Amino acid sequence: MLCFLGQSDSVAQLVASIFARCYGDSPVPTIPEIQKTLPARLDPHFLNNKEMSDVTFLVEGKVFYAHKVLLVTASTR
Q1: Alpha-carbon torsion 58, 63, 68, 72, what sign?
Q2: Contacting residues for 10 by C-beta, under 8 A, at least 6 apart
Q3: How far is Cα 31 from Cα 35, in angstroms, rounded to an integer?
Q4: Residue 57: enclosing H or E segment and its boundaries?
Q5: What are residue 61's phi and psi, to 5 degrees?
Q6: Which of 6, 7, 23, 76 is 20 to 30 A (C-alpha) from 49?
Q7: Per-residue pLDDT for the chain (77 aa), expressed as one digit of tens each?
Q8: Which residues form the signal peptide (predicted)?
Q9: What is the C-alpha to C-alpha distance for residues 16 and 41, in angstroms, rounded to an integer?
């Protein structure tokens, strides 16, 4: 039986009924918890600054300076 804190039994029964119609006798798949991460604040002094960088990119003849930490923070991997 599903339990919802602060909700009535009729709501829990309705949700259970919806899941039963969607999944039948099959177990309901686990729903992964979404981890909310706060976006990193980028100090303008660290953006494209030769003195404050530890990574350099050369793109179409132009040099761009970056930080490994900022690149990792911005990456989806």
Answers
A1: negative
A2: none
A3: 12
A4: strand 55-59
A5: 80, 0
A6: 76
A7: 455 555 577 888 888 888 888 888 888 788 788 777 766 566 777 788 888 889 999 999 999 998 888 888 777 77
A8: none
A9: 42
